[in-house]
Design goal:
With 265 residues, the protein is an alpha/beta fold. The protein contains 9 helices and 10 strands. The strands form 2 sheets. Strands 6-7-8-3-9-10 form a 6-stranded mixed sheet, sandwiched between helices. The protein has a 4-stranded antiparallel sheet with strand order 2-1-4-5, covered by helices on one side. β9 and β10 form a beta hairpin. α5 packs across α6 and α6 packs parallel to α7. The longest helix is centred in the last third of the chain and has 18 residues. It is globular. 42% of the residues are buried. Pfam families: ABC_tran. This is Phosphonate ABC transporter ATP-binding protein. It is a peripheral membrane protein. One of its GO terms (molecular function) is ATP binding.
Length: 265
């Protein structure tokens, strides 16, 4: 279970970016975080994995308080927090397999990391996960030779190689075309169920949030404005979160039908 209590993030003497957020996520729940640019969505995710240092508050993952961890304790805790990035964050000159195995860097010694000599169990797990998401045939291909959707699938598998207890996805579909973004959202939804993994997705596309996640959390100016089921995310909630500006891809434009597919364009 992930529990966030009274989370505050302030840069310098400016207005706080996050203002006392409280959130609990457990099981294989898929949660979308929506809100206008600057609402604090990315900052919240980055506070969880300590890429951004919280100003105050508590973040607990399965009984481990994350906020005050340092050094080796922090590195060990981060192994259990998978992260999928908007910009993929792959090493282009390395192969797909090498990028995927980078998810095990927190578990191997320095010699294994430098020489890229990973245990056979890690290699077997990598092949299994790549096969699961439809990219096993790209194992020896350089990352910069892949399409955006393929690169994001590599990023997902790399995060899963950490054997995470929670998966964070920061705008995982923003750089993708509409069809591919739907496929990535379906993939995250199905993996959460298969691996009993809670997933938090920072997303601008409200229609996808309502279609592919079980819970919607809306932020505005660093405060939580909405927390509920997609069916309850109505016009009033949109107005409260976006303040009269048009929400991106809001629910008036119905999303395309779900189609099970591993292929990407």
């Amino acid at each position: 279970m992930l529990v966030i209590k009274d989370l505050v993030k302030q840069y310098g003497h400016g207005e706080a970016v996050l203002k006392g957020l409280n959130l609990s996520v457990e099981g294989n729940t898929v949660v979308s975080i929506v809100g206008a640019s600057g609402a604090g969505k990315s900052t919240m995710l980055r506070c969880i994995n300590r890429l951004v240092e919280p100003t105050s508050g508590s973040i607990t993952l399965n009984g481990t308080e994350l906020v005050n961890l340092k050094g080796g304790e922090l590195r060990r805790a981060r192994r259990k927090i998978g992260m999928v990035f908007q910009g993929f964050n792959l090493l282009d000159r390395l192969t797909v397999m090498e990028n995927v195995l980078a998810g095990r860097l927190g578990y191997v010694n320095l010699f294994q990391a430098i020489s890229r000599r990973y245990p056979q169990a890690d290699i077997d797990r990598a092949f299994y996960l790549m096969e699961r998401v439809g990219i096993a045939h790209y194992a020896n291909k350089r990352a910069d030779e892949l399409s955006g959707g393929e690169r994001q699938r590599v990023g997902v598998v790399r995060a899963l190689m950490q054997d995470p207890e929670v998966l964070l996805a920061d705008e995982p579909t923003a750089s993708l075309d509409p069809r591919t973004s739907e496929q990535i959202m379906m993939l995250l939804q199905s993996l959460a169920a298969e691996l009993s993994l809670p997933v938090l997705i920072n997303i601008h596309n409200v229609a996808q949030a309502k279609t592919y996640t079980e819970r919607v959390v809306g932020l505005r100016h660093g405060k939580m404005i909405f927390d509920g089921a997609p069916v309850d995310f109505n016009k009033e909630a949109l107005e409260a979160i976006y303040g009269g500006i048009e929400a991106p891809d809001e629910e008036l434009a119905p999303p395309p039908p779900k189609e099970a597919s591993h292929g990407v364009s």
